[in-house]
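Before relying on records like the one below, remember that each one covers exactly one chain. Contacts with other chains, cofactors or solvent are not represented anywhere in the record.
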Amino acid sequence: MKRPSWLEFAEKQKGITEIFGKGNNETIVKWLKDLNADWHNDEVPWCGVFIAKCLQETGYSYPKHWASALAYANFGVRLNKPALGCIAVKKRIRPDGTTGGHVTFIVGKNKKGELIGLGGN
């Protein structure tokens, strides 16, 4: 099975991390500029940024509120089961009771049958 183009781009980004403290990862800052973000530092969760940039780079659309992981829950076509390169969203409840999430591309399963994701952050 041919890997989706957005997944090929994502795989080339492995190892990119934010810089804690005063510095910023220039690659993430460039992605934010490319996506017309209203902030330009890597100090906030950037999993949605990563997914949007991978889609943008390969000519695909992404949600209007692409910076929010949960925005991807209602984006695209819902599948009955995971497929290579599909977008998966995990919802979580923070200790203060607010909700948050994480978004990633599905790249396979481990020996236990658990899904393996590739994403930013």
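Strands lie at 87-93, 99-109, 115-118.
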